[in-house]
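Comment thread on ticket #2218

A.B. wrote:
> Attaching the input chain for the structure job we discussed in standup.
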Amino acid sequence: MVQDTPVTDRDFAALFREEAGSILTEQQINDEIEREQTRSAQAARAGIAPNRFRGFNLQRYCKDIVRSHQPLSCLYLLLSDLTGAVSVLLPICCLLWVVRRLIAFPLAGAYCVCAIVCVCFYGISSICRRRLRTLLSSSVPNATTLRQKAGHLQIISTVTAAILSCLLFFVYQSYFQQITKFASLQNIFLWFVSMMFLSGVHNVLYESQCISFFAVGWYTVAHQKSRTASAIRHYTEGRGNTPLRPHLVTIRIYLLIALFIICILDFLCIRQCLMHFDYAVLTLGTVSTLCTLIGVISLISCIVLFRHCSKK
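C.D. wrote:
> Ran it. Output below, let me know if you need it in another format.
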């Protein structure tokens, strides 16, 4: 592990520059690369595997650091952790469904228990990785002390996840056992799709150009003319010499098509909830409604920018 660290550092620097190039300044990028080299050196000195604080997806790790410099980074981390937990939950539930064909046990209850355990252990382990990253960024002179602190952090996170899982299980047994009737493989799949969809939309919106594009419509709706002008200037400068009008025409067409499809999905979700209430459909409907709102504001951005181009 220690021998592979320099190569991984070079990979990190290349990937991080690619992720952060259009979002962070050159100084911020260099500072983060320097901090990562410090973390890597500290981990190598204490014999800590890089995967313990980076995870197994280096590109995701780079994206997490970039997002920490952007607004509402806590929302990004929450959505990422929930999406990751549901991604682990779905295959486990599929396996339980197969095992249920061979051994009789209450399947819906097993789904709920697995959901509690996945959310707790995935969330706590994610927090543990971030805490370990902070620990490695600090100056701990003794390698043995650093290794002991990392070990204690791992033990505390495991025990905390286990205790939290037990507490939530007792709360579920006492107050929320009626949720069991909504626990099915189909609903878990719908939750998975909803979280992936919401996480994807959130990631796209966090890209540099998308934020400035969306800000135009948002400030237009809020009647903040000075900020609208600033957002228009930021977006057009970010596009450089690329022709803007053909791009806006294409975006407008795709937005209208997307809004038509999403509005149909909104109608179907509302109709289904009125006929037969379902938490999974409600979740999907909430995500769909949010996407409708985003689509409408994006369409307003497109119209405002198109008018701005026409005035030139």
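A.B. wrote:
> Thanks. Noting for the ticket: Confidence is low (pLDDT under 50) at residues 1-7.
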